[in-house]
């Protein structure tokens, strides 16, 4: 094939050129994202039930929804949590479930259930979780001093949101911190009572004045007119002019009985930018959009907003494109330094500037053609697929160096240019194909991991497969053709003498070879002992998900653990911000209940999430200590967590599951176990290392008790008392004014005094027209009750989070503890998911090793020789572990990727060396006068000399290309540094040992059998 193609160099060149042009066109159409658009198999149902207790939300709302959703196809798990005024149900599905259909199914069932929910409750929100739901940036909208905040909310909702949604690539715009206008009616109690009236008269007058006659029409000859009541109200002055009838028959304008005015609706949550109240607009991109084009468009739009709306300040925060830019920057850096160092190393070893130029052409060509595969597999350019390309670049350079070195060596042996190109490629073709297949056999099976990990590895596996497959085509077709074209006019053939540098390196290798083969048994034993020692270093290494990154931003999650209002929560956060003022570059906070449509976390009035961006690491460390001291001093009961600000990776990989949770259900009562019983039971729990779960958390509350005997004596109904209490302590809605989609609620003013005073001062009319205070009929007492009610598929449960080092060791004790108390006990959590993933990973890696062995066995037609290749891998892994340990790094996702890169190169070198030994043995044995033993000795020696140059060139080129990352700063360098340590450690130590281990192992494990056959 190579001979046929080389005979037509112009046709081959033009074909490649056309392919690259087509690839470039395709590349420009590929979507650029932070992460692949993965369907996370979860749906969240959110319920908002104002002024309802957790028990009321569980009994009246969540239980009905759970019963209605239990029959969903593919439903794996269901958990619900009812808190004050809010409730959530999280549905987890099998990973094979089509989430588009599941989302439609959930919405249909919610519509059917809606009729069974309490009157007046808003339809539950259904949120589908997707990686594209992670916002790419946040726009801060800050009203200037004296500007009406409600007008700014309307501006954000009706103008800014729509203008941002029109930007190309934007899928959704979400807002938090909006303020709504309502009309408040504040009754004048003395005037009302003087006229013998009640609040009901006012309420009835307002409701009557806002009635409509939908669908009522009259016929007038050939015309038909639709009727509209002229008494409809629109403004507070309209309401004040409404007539109210007194029992005496007098008609009084409502304005004399109540003050009516526009006010801001009570907020359940706030957004702050710094210490100022603001709105935040989160921007979400379309799956097919290019993030690197969307963010500049958004920044341009913000500049226009600043000009068009001078009454508002705008800032862009938490720009997630920084991660993507870091990945692209790293790839560019790898290509740039890879090219520069490849040129330098090749020139040093090969003494000809044309060879580096050939590699300089082949690298970008392979990369560009790889994007064609992306197009056909519908894969976006994202951090995962880019890391796959980065994986393949090392192998790509490796293949190019091996082919060029072999062609050059053939020319030095005296072959003409054409034959040198043909035989140079043919000789290494099968070995290079095997090396690529072995790399893929290690990597591709990881696609079959379950969950998000498998979905992410799919993009990476396709990227690796694409670049390695293309690199083979380039190495077998384009490289020999370019070599032929570049050297066709060169009449001078290299005399085969090595340069001074490589001659010195070869001399060192020869001394080492003589030393090792002079003490073969000792040398083999020493190298074999290095394998367990190197692998044992892994026990000293800490492990984590992503590498520790020096981030300049951080988050503070705080739960005040007190039944405070959203306003008090805001005031505390403002005080904290002012205490920190001048210590941060940027700060924002979401306080209380979030208004985001896509927010799937816990909504609680007493919680807040704060974000800080600092100018330096030192400033960050200093201010974090200041934060801790402020909260501990002023709010000792608060729970808080300070951590790095989550990026898209963290949001995707962070599990909502606790690590190890012990759940129990009361098998008799089917309701939460009361605290007076639960306390003694928990004191008998099998381990003392535990924390209360959501269903055991407590908060203070006030319990009202009606005095039934007094109500009966004075003939006051329970409904009267409940209605009056609702007007006092609830947000009593009189009516809604609707105009062209805009809804303005009309509500009674909520008193701001203490509830004890309200009970003593508020009067209620009895049947004898006398007035009595509410405190005559209502008792109250303070009580600690459960803050949340938690439930799963089978009903209400309570739980604790076990923090012991080996929690599963207590499993039988947990079950016995529950059985003794008639509790059904079960264990759930991330611990079990991790165990399952580890078993899967071990199984998949075993399959990978078997695949690798079968491929090599077919390549070498031997069962023993593949074992030599497999045994070189622990040497590289041990070297990688040693450098990771010395550098103070950890085992993480990036260092694991580095191991795969390094093993791919080492496998390649070992395969080519064994292939060369086999070929030389075959040639030498056929020479007259050469015994089988002499042929083996010569083959081992010559193969080492022949393969020394490409092995060293590949390793040195890869190492030198990566070294600049160690000394770089920034997010991208922090991410890539563990990968660099793995590759440098593995290639440095692994290559040095493998240079001598392969011939040694070949001598001991292969020689005897082959000699007998000879």
TrEMBL record:
Entry GO CC: plasma membrane
* Source domain of life: Bacteria
User: What keyword terms does UniProt attach to this protein?
Assistant: Membrane, Transmembrane, Transmembrane helix
According to the UniProt entry, its GO molecular function terms are: xenobiotic transmembrane transporter activity
Report TM segments: 12-30, 331-350, 357-377, 383-407, 428-449, 461-486, 522-541, 841-860, 867-887, 893-912, 951-973, 979-1005
Please name one Pfam family that this protein belongs to.
ACR_tran
Question: What name appears for this protein in its UniProt entry?
Answer: Multidrug efflux pump subunit AcrB
């Amino acid at each position: 094939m190579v001979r046929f193609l080389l005979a037509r160099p112009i046709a081959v060149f033009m074909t490649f050129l056309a392919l690259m042009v087509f690839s470039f066109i395709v590349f420009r159409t590929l979507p650029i994202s932070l992460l692949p658009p993965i369907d996370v198999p979860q749906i969240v149902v959110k319920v908002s039930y104002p002024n309802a207790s957790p028990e009321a939300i569980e009994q009246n709302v969540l239980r009905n929804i759970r019963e209605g959703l239990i029959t969903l196809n593919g439903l794996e798990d269901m958990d619900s949590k009812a808190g004050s005024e809010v409730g959530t149900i999280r549905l987890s599905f099998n990973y094979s479930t089509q989430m588009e259909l599941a989302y439609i199914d959930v919405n249909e069932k919610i519509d059917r259930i809606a009729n069974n929910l309490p009157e007046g409750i808003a339809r539950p929100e259904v949120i589908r979780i997707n990686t594209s739901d992670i916002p790419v940036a946040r726009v801060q909208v800050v009203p200037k001093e004296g500007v009406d905040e409600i007008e700014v909310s309307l501006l954000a909702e009706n103008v800014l949101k729509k203008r941002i949604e029109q930007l190309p690539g934007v899928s959704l715009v979400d807002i938090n911190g909006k303020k709504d206008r309502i009309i408040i009616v504040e009754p004048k109690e003395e005037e009302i009572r003087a006229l013998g009236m009640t609040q009901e008269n006012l309420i009835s007058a307002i409701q009557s004045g806002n009635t409509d006659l939908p669908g009522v029409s009259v016929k007038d000859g050939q015309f038909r007119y639709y009727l509209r009541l002229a008494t409809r109200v629109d403004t507070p002055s309209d309401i004040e002019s409404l007539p109210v009838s007194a029992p005496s028959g007098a008609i009084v304008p409502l304005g004399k009985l109540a003050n009516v005015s526009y006010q801001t609706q009570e907020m359940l949550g706030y957004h702050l930018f710094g210490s100022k109240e603001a709105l935040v607009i989160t921007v979400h991109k379309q799956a097919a959009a290019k993030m690197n084009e969307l963010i500049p468009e958004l920044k341009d739009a913000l500049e226009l907003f600043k000009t068009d709306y001078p009454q508002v300040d705008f800032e862009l925060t938490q720009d997630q494109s920084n991660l993507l830019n870091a990945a692209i920057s790293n790839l560019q850096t790898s290509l740039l330094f890879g090219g520069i160092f490849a040129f330098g190393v090749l020139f040093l070893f090969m003494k000809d500037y044309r060879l580096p130029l050939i590699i300089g052409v082949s690298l970008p060509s392979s990369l560009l053609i790889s994007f064609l595969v992306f197009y056909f597999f519908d894969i976006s350019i994202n951090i995962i697929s880019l890391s796959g390309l980065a994986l393949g670049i090392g192998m790509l350079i490796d293949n190019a160096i091996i082919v060029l070195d072999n062609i050059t060596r053939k020319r030095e042996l005296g072959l003409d240019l054409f034959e040198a190109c043909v035989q140079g490629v043919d000789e290494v073709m099968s070995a290079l194909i095997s090396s690529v297949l072995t790399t893929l056999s290690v990597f591709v099976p990881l696609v079959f991991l379950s969950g998000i990990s498998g979905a992410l590895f799919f993009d990476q596996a396709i990227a690796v497969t694409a670049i390695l497959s293309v690199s083979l085509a380039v190495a077998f077709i384009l490289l020999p053709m370019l070599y032929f074209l570049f050297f066709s006019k060169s009449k001078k053939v290299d005399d085969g003498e090595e340069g001074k540098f490589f001659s010195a390196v070869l001399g060192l290798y020869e001394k080492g070879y003589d030393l090792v083969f002079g003490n073969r048994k000792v040398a083999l034993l020493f190298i074999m002992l290095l394998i367990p020692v190197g692998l044992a270093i892994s026990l000293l290494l800490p492990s984590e998900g992503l590498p520790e990154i020096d981030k300049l931003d951080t988050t503070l999650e705080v739960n005040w653990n007190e039944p405070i209002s959203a306003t008090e929560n805001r005031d505390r956060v403002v005080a904290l911000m002012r205490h920190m003022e001048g210590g941060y570059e940027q700060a924002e906070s979401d306080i209380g209940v979030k208004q985001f449509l896509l927010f799937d976390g816990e909504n609680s009035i007493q919680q807040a999430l704060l974000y800080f961006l600092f100018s330096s690491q030192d400033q960050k460390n200093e201010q974090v200590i200041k934060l801790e001291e402020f909260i501990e001093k002023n709010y000792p009961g608060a729970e808080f967590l300070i951590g790095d600000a989550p990026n898209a990776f963290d949001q995707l990989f962070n599990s909502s599951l606790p690590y190890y949770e012990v759940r129990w259900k009361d098998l008799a009562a089917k309701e939460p176990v009361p605290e007076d019983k639960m306390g003694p039971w928990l004191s008998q729990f099998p381990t003392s290392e535990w924390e209360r779960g959501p269903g055991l958390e407590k908060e203070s509350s006030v319990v009202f008790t009606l005095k039934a005997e007094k109500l009966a004596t004075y003939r006051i109904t329970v409904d009267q008392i409940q209605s009056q209490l609702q007007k006092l302590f609830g947000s009593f809605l009189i009516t809604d004014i609707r105009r062209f989609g805009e809804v303005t609620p009309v509500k009674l003013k909520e008193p701001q005094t203490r509830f004890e005073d309200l009970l003593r001062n508020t009067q209620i009319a009895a049947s004898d027209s006398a007035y009595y205070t509410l405190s005559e009929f209502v008792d109250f007492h303070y009580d600690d009750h459960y803050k949340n009610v938690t439930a799963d598929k089978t009903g209400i449960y309570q739980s604790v989070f076990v923090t012991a080092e080996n929690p599963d060791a207590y499993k039988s004790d947990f079950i016995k503890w529950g059985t003794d108390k008639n509790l059904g006990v079960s264990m759930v959590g991330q611990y079990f998911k991790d165990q399952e993933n580890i078993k899967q990973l071990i199984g998949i890696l075993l399959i990978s090793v078997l695949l690798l062995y079968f491929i090599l066995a077919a390549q070498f037609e031997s069962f023993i020789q593949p074992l030599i290749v497999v045994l070189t891998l622990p040497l590289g892994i041990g070297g990688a572990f040693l450098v990771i340990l010395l550098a103070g790094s950890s085992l993480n996702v990036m260092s694991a990727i580095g191991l795969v890169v390094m093993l791919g190169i080492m496998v390649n070198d070992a395969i080519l060396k064994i292939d060369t030994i086999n070929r030389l043995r075959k040639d030498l044995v056929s020479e007259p006068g050469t015994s089988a033993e002499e042929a083996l000795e010569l083959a081992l020696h010559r193969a080492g000399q022949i393969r020394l140059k490409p092995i060293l060139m590949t390793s040195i080129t890869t190492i030198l290309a990566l070294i600049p990352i160690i000394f770089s700063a920034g997010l991208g360098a922090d991410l890539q540094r563990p990968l660099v340590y793995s590759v440098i450690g593995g290639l440095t130590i692994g290559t040095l040992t493998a240079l001598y281990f392969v011939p040694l192992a070949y001598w001991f494990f292969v020689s005897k059998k082959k000699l007998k056959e000879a």
